[in-house]
Design goal:
Blueprint lengths: L1 H11 L9 H13 L4 H16 L5 H12 L5 H44 L3 H29 L3 H16 L4 H17 L38 H26 L4 H15 L4 H15 L5 H12 L8 H12 L6 H27 L10 H30 L3 E6 L2 E6 L6 H16 L4 H22 L1
Helix pairs in contact: 2-5, 3-5, 4-5, 5-13, 5-14, 6-12, 6-15, 6-16, 6-17, 7-15, 8-15, 9-10, 9-14, 10-13, 10-14, 11-15, 12-13, 13-14, 16-17
Length: 470
Amino acid sequence: MADLAKGTLSARRGRAADIIPLSEAIRVWIRVAALSFGGPAGQIAVMHRILVDEKRWIGEHRFLHALNYCMLLPGPEAHQLAIYIGWLLNRTLGGVIAGILFVLPGFLSILALSYIYVLFGNVTFIEGMFFGLKCAVLAVVLQAVFRIGSRALKNRVMVAIAAAAFIAIFFLQIPFPFIIIATGVIGYLGGRAGIAAFKVGGGHKAQSGKILEDRDSLLGADIPVHARPNLAWSIRISAILAALWFLPVIAILLTLGPTNVFAKIGVFFSQMAVVTFGGAYAVLAYVAQEAVQHFGWLQPHEMLDGLGMAETTPGPLIMVTQFVGFLAGYRDPGVLNPLVTATLAAILTTWVTFLPSFLWIFLGAPFIESMRGNAALAGAMSAITAAVVGVILNLAIWFGLHVLFTEMWTVSWGLWSMNVPVISSIVWPSLVLTILASLAIFHFRMTVITTLLLSAVFGIAWALLMSWGR
């Protein structure tokens, strides 16, 4: 007992060693990954419950501080938070293991569903399942608009930013990255000037009741030796990760050419990893805009099918990009078997989507203490979050048009054009099921997973009923 107490005290004083045994950490991260349903909010809640409340490995304030840093970064914040905490507890190897385990169940699940989709997607049972999921996904995206909006739009300035972002992307077709950059600059300047409207109070609310203070956690309040700023280590690890990210993409470009599907996937999703601020739903608006309209890798209803897969499997919601890459490879296989190309494309998409998260964390995490309480960065985050509300509203309307209507007509004026639904082409079963899914989420407070599963069952029943009637 004395040795255990001595070892714990040594950890709290910041010795350069694992805070907990790596084998125990791996078991816990597998558990976190297996339970990580429900999008970023659900995944962060699972990590908080297990790591803070149950295991008491990390204190409340340190957990929220890490989360706030991850929210400032492009990419999936829940994945980055797992890397960050894994690194704090078990050094670089711990961060790598936590990050890999966090996405592995989702990757394997969506890969299996992607095979089923392309091989058996025309089977009535499968068609019905995805019909139901699409309607539920529309309700889930609407919920995201209200959930994020209630947290982000605290004053008239934030409401104005959200409205401007919606107008910019929906009516003016301004690309998503430009909207995020512009709002980030506005928020940064507003926060630096001390304008009250741009102040934020840390991301997710702590649970009510007594919280676990940092000093009472296993990690303690002090910064471990390995987590202290070390410019040489940061440069070295960043160089390795940057090489792992860019060298495969460069090699593909040089050997296969820029028009090859692998080259397009590598470049596009690498760009996405740099500009995707604001969470998964904001990212989906950008991916849908480019993958559907620009590259033509998949159809709008297929984007909804992929989102349904990501919603019903563990792991980050942005795993839907893997499905996009899979279909892109399947439909442009080159000299390879389509399934082989699709599998390689899914792996490449996942690689360039999630590897940057390791780079952002290992590069910046040791220096985040100096960022704590930075008003300018807080202002940038508040403005970006407000803009994301407008972007997600655009995504909800885009999904709704393709779920509820079968025909569109184009309204043009000079260089500007806009698709408007043909009212007579409304799909009544989709409308009814979308309303039922919305009632389940908003009125009956059902979980996302329950709503998706029930909608899938209703969709299958409807498809079977229609097939028997023919």
